[in-house]
C-alpha cells in the first residue's frame, strides 16, 4: 500500500512539474477580451491564417462584431503577436445596413451599407472626416470594392455612446467603420499600413462563400 501511495504521489509531482502547454492565439486573445464572442474571434483568426498564405498580414488585428447592437462596444483591436488587447470601442455601421442592428451588407457603391469580411489596412490621409485610414477588401464579392467605395476608418461626432443610449442607436455612416473622434487617431495609428480588420455578422451567404472562411487546408 505504501509503495502504491508513493508511486501515486511521484506521478502527481511529475504532472505538476511538467511545463504547461503554451496557450495559442485564440486562448490568449480570448482571455484579453472576454466580452468578444470566442467564436467570432476564432473566425477572424481563421481568415487571418488563410490570408497569410498570400502575403504578410502584420501583427495587429481589429475584429468588428456587427451582430451586436451599435449601442455596445463591438470593435476590438489586438496585438496578435503579444497577445494583448489594445482598444475596445464603439463603431458605426452604414445607414443602409439598419438602425441599431446591422442586418444588411453590401459591396455595391452607393448602397451606404457596411461590408463584411477581412480587409487589409492601408495609408492614412486627412480628408473631410479628418484623419482617416483607407482599407482594401480581401474578399471579392463581399468587400473587394472597399477602396473605390471610399470605405475608410475615420472619427465621427455621431459615434457618441452617451447619445446612443438616449436615442437607441449610434449615428450611422455611409458604410465606413467610424469610431469616436477622441480616439480616432490612436486607433488608426495602431492599425494603419498593412494590418488586418475583420468585420463579422451572422450572414449566411458570406459564411458559406467567403474565400477566407472556406480556405482549403494544406
What's the tally of helices?
6
CATH topology: L,D-transpeptidase catalytic domain-like
What is the terminal separation in angstroms?
52 Å
Helices and strands, in order, run as HHHEEEEEEHEHEH
Instruction: Output the CATH homologous superfamily.
Output: L,D-transpeptidase catalytic domain-like
Q: What does the average pLDDT come to?
A: 92
Low confidence ranges: 1-19
Strand content: 15-25%
What is the name of the CATH architecture?
A: Beta Barrel
Instruction: Count structural domains.
Output: 1
DSSP E strands, number:
8
CATH class: Mainly Beta
Give the proportion of residues in helices.
25-40%
Structural class: alpha+beta
Overall, the morphology is globular
Signal peptide: 1-22
Pfam family, one: YkuD_2
Protein name: Murein L,D-transpeptidase catalytic domain family protein
Keywords: Signal
Question: How is this structure best described in words?
Answer:
This protein has one domain: L,D-transpeptidase catalytic domain-like. Mean pLDDT is 92; it is low at 1-19. The radius of gyration is 21 Å and the shape is globular. An 8-stranded mixed β-sheet has the order 3-2-1-8-4-5-6-7, with helices on both faces. The protein has 6 helices and 8 strands, in the order αααββββββαβαβα. With 218 residues, it is α+β, with helices and mostly antiparallel strands. α2 packs across α3. It holds the Pfam family YkuD_2. InterPro entries: YkuD_2. It comes from Luteimonas chenhongjianii. Residues 1-22 form the signal peptide. This is Murein L,D-transpeptidase catalytic domain family protein.
